[in-house]
Amino acid sequence: MVVNSVHWFRKGLRLHDNPALQEALNGAETVRCVYILDPWFAGSANVGVNRWRFLLESLEDLDTSLRKLNSRLFVVRGQPTDVFPRLFKEWNVTRLTFEYDSEPYGKERDAAIIKMAQEYGVETAVRNTHTLYNPDRIIEMNNHSPPLTFKRFQAIVNRLELPRKPLPTISQEQMARCQTKISENHDERYGVPSLEELGFKTHGDSSHVWKGGETEALERLNKHLDRKAWVANFERPRITAQSLFASPTGLSPYLRFGCLSCRVFYYNLWELYMKLRRSSSPPLSLFGQLLWREFFYTAGTNNPNFDHMEGNPICVQIPWDHNPEALAKWAEGRTGFPWIDAIMTQLRQEGWIHHLARHAVACFLTRGDLWISWESGMKVFEELLLDADWSVNAGSWMWLSCSAFFQQFFHCYCPVGFGRRTDPSGDYIRRYIPKLKDYPNRYIYEPWNAPESVQKAANCIVGVDYPKPMINHAESSRLNIERMKQVYQQLSHYRGLSLLASVPTIQEEAEPPMSDDSQASSSTAGQASTPTSSPHQPTPAPSTSPNSEPFTPNSSPTAAFPGAHSQRKRGRPSGPPKPTEFKSQAHQPSQRI
Amino acid sequence: MSNTQNSSLRPSRMKRRLSRDGEDSPSSCEGPTDSCKRVRQPTVDSGDLPPDWACLPQEILLHIFQFLPLLDRAFASQVCRGWNEAFHMPELWRCFEFELNQPASSYLKATHPDLIKQIIKRHSNHLQYVSFKVDSSTESAEAACDILSQLVNCSLKTLGLISTARPSFMELPKSHFISALTVVFVNSKSLSSLKIDDTPVDDPSLKVLVANNSDTLKLLKMSSCPHVSPAGILCVADQCHGLRELALNYHLLSDELLLALSSEKHVHLEHLRIDVVSENPGQQFHTIKKSSWDAMVRHSPKFNLVMYFFLYEDEFGPFFRDEIPVTHLYFGRSVSKEVLGRVGMNCPRLVELVVCANGLRPLDEELIRIAERCQHLSAIGLGECEVSCSAFVEFVKMCGRRLSQLSIMEEVLIPDHKYSLDEIHWEVSKHLGRVWFPDMMPTW
């Protein structure tokens, strides 16, 4: 029987270590490599121009590599559910292959496509390569729930067999066996679109730092390994001012888009370590960065609300403030704290910031200073950050805002001192906020404290040329630590975990223990009963007699009056989804990249 | 109760209850309709039938109701007259937490206005333990004050005004806030606990508090209340001899206050929390005499002194020069090596220490000294600091197993010739007698 294959690229934009693509080639008569893109939704999706550029460059690179193998990339315009029936017929497709997507949105989309393929008599082959391990396997090993601490996760990984060895890249011979008919008008119909075609205005700013594509990824990998070999030190690298700038050996965006296989990275590190150390086997810490990614993928794979506070069983419910104005200042780098503003500027311009910088701005937005929901910050990162994966992004934000994963909240990064520790001379700030470049080192992290004469000499008056700090950090961190304590003291299973919550306070003998029903009903409504989801304290012991002080579960949002019914439904799983939830529905047209 | 009879309505509601509480709650209420049916059932042949729920004795019903969230009680109250009466029993309304949130400023839902009205109308005389959780909007703080000023015929024992996001009570006109608060002070007469952090409470209103509640007041939390003066708080300490817990800002702390709290008439103080916050850089802070602290310790030998510092490094001049009986120390901003050195010398009662940030020089000697001299230290947290691995191991060795909480960011520990990062957790775990790891942040 004739096999006509389509390989559907989504992530995994590479020819090396691509088992699903290998499967497409296996005994096939024809193979077409497809990427599906909806230009109509490109502009409206919450994805910034840098991420689109990276994607398009990666697609260009794929196309170039495929040309060398006498094939081409087919960029098909539309939505997968509309596109595939058409392609199945037009190309007489019998086999569809793609990389496994472990994220809830992807799983739902893929399930629909697999079902559709079945209806058309098309066999499907799916291979897991975006992560080192199968997230489901880790969950299974952890008694069927995702590990919620990194240590626990590492312990599981230690017991797992090693990741599968990577496969070689697609060869000329392999491809030659599978003809791909290329029509005359291929470029018109299936060419990689330009940014302009997607509705982005480009000002010829070709000086972007991160160039997308597999070719670039592999070059960077070599440089990365060369440098590691040169340093011959596998310890955690010491963070210097230089670490804050984009590095030619940085790999995270390439792992995100799958331009680089994480298994290739893993085994290259492994071999290098063995060569230089000649020890039995490398420690887990060698793969630190890769494992963090796996950790969050595992935590998110079965949790469609992983990117929300409400309805997310692992997320602590925190009464964040709604403050669009403050959020905009943060997102646009107008906080008046040069360290924060420089980071947000670098993020917007280049699409990547160092993990320390991520900690700094995330802490500032959430629990440290502005007390704004991590979800808002996550959305800004989703737009701007090249390596923002849904799971990793949401997971990191929950981590950094102390919303999950059992974090200590006593320590808030100082928007002045933290940067100064890393880069005392302020070069990083001078680069991204040129207005401040003439400030002396002493004041560059806190220009508002500079005497007027210094401000004048630097040609930058605070309050005129550069904003005043939007918040008093000492005051806000004092307040926020209290807020965090309020939240955490209500979570019985956290009691004793956080240093400050252990400061005792007298229990009024008459004061009934506070029940947390209010929290449950007003925010985590209807959550599953996993330990972290339930902010309930254990049911308090019943009072000895009706006359003794009652414990009273109090202040539910509704009560005995007409209208209670309608309100009851709100926030319940049975209620209608909020508008924001629609985006996770596979049928809803959207463009995820 | 017949299970078949009400199976039509039960599942959905049961499921909700279950999914929220995890396991079967002590009791779940029935849907209105099926319970009504049951009420109408003849009760003559109750020999084989399950008991008639409508005839449950009040005290049992009350007991059950105490386990139900308000919402479920509300549903139950629609079942029959008896249950409706039970719903309104005063015992169920002693404690209430008003959640005042605006859709524009909070993600959380609010207590329904109709419910608030009903409480004020029917239950305000039952309320005893009341708190208000208020979001960042002025409207919410205003709403809290409106409710407060209507609580004229109630006698509260505890009152908490809690800003969950920003100190929104501070944005209210002071007179409005004060008049609402004094309504409670005047009417309560038996307040024992008052939490009014971040509010515009002032000296005259504290006088009203004292005039009406001096015999009962045990707990007063008023951190960051800028309109209170040292004299205002002194008046409270002078008159309220039962005060056991007090939280305030450093600028209200005086030798006189400590002496008042350690007078013979005064009960033992249990907790004193002081926030030391600088409003503007270079602020000058007064000092407290060692003799005043000594008097305090003599009077209340077991009291906890909790101090939160949010100062610039150069503002620590007056602190830790003499011995101070502090038990819990939290440095929210950068604190110098030198000050930490003084902490080691002058804080013999220290139990818990948190250092959020320090300079770039390792804190080796300082930590060793703290381990040496702070014999009660059992919890420590380090953020943006540096300590060499050897010094850290030495510190842990000296403190040993009394270190029940040890929260150290991974970056704090600087590998040296003796220990690498992989080795240190073994070494520390050994001395602690339990598995220990440094805290980490995602490197992604």
Annotate the secondary structure layout.
The complex is a heterodimer of chains A (593) and B (444).
Chain A: E1 4-9, H1 19-25, E2 30-37, H2 39-42, H3 49-68, E3 73-77, H4 80-90, E4 95-99, H5 104-119, E5 123-127, H6 135-141, H7 150-159, H8 172-177, H9 186-190, H10 214-231, H11 252-256, H12 262-277, H13 288-300, H14 324-331, H15 338-350, H16 355-368, H17 374-384, H18 390-400, H19 417-422, H20 427-432, H21 441-444, H22 452-457, H23 473-489, H24 517-522, H25 564-569
Parallel strand pairs in A: 1-2, 1-4, 2-3, 4-5
Helix pairs in contact in A: 4-5, 6-13, 10-12, 13-18, 17-18
Chain B: H1 10-21, H2 32-40, H3 58-65, H4 70-77, H5 81-87, E1 95-100, H6 113-123, E2 129-134, H7 138-150, E3 158-163, H8 174-188, E4 193-195, H9 203-213, E5 219-221, H10 230-239, E6 245-249, H11 255-261, E7 271-277, H12 290-299, E8 304-310, E9 328-334, H13 337-346, E10 352-357, H14 364-373, E11 379-384, E12 387-388, H15 389-399, E13 405-408, E14 413-414, H16 421-432
Parallel strand pairs in B: 1-2, 2-3, 3-4, 4-5, 5-6, 6-7, 7-8, 8-9, 9-10, 10-11, 11-13, 12-14
Q: How would you summarize this macromolecular structure in one to three sentences?
A:
The complex is a heterodimer of chains A (593) and B (444). Chain A has three domains: 1-130, HUPs (Rossmann fold), CATH 3.40.50.620; 132-165 and 215-302, Serine Threonine Protein Phosphatase 5, Tetratricopeptide repeat, CATH 1.25.40; 324-492, DNA Cyclobutane Dipyrimidine Photolyase, subunit A, domain 3 (Orthogonal Bundle), CATH 1.10.579.10.
Summarize the structure in words.
The complex is a heterodimer of chains A (593) and B (444). By secondary structure, chain A is mainly alpha-helical. Chain A contains 25 helices and 5 strands. Chain A folds into 3 domains: 130 residues, 3-Layer(aba) Sandwich (Rossmann fold); 122 residues, Serine Threonine Protein Phosphatase 5, Tetratricopeptide repeat; 169 residues, DNA Cyclobutane Dipyrimidine Photolyase, subunit A, domain 3 (Orthogonal Bundle). A 5-stranded parallel β-sheet of chain A has the order 3-2-1-4-5, sandwiched between helices. The longest helix of chain A is centred in the N-terminal third of the chain and has 20 residues. The two termini of chain A are 35 Å apart. About 16% of the residues of chain A have low confidence. Chain B is of the alpha/beta class and 444 residues long. Among the domains of chain B are: 37 residues, no CATH class; 271 residues, Leucine-rich repeat, LRR (right-handed beta-alpha superhelix). In chain B, the strands form 2 sheets. Chain B has a 12-stranded parallel β-sheet with strand order 1-2-3-4-5-6-7-8-9-10-11-13. A two-stranded parallel sheet of chain B has the order 12-14. At the A-B interface, α13, α16, α18, α19 and α23 of A face α1, α3, α4, β1 and α6 of B. Chain B: This is F-box/LRR-repeat protein 3. Chain B: It comes from Carassius auratus (Goldfish). Chain B: Keywords: Biological rhythms, Cytoplasm, Leucine-rich repeat, Nucleus, Repeat, Ubl conjugation pathway.
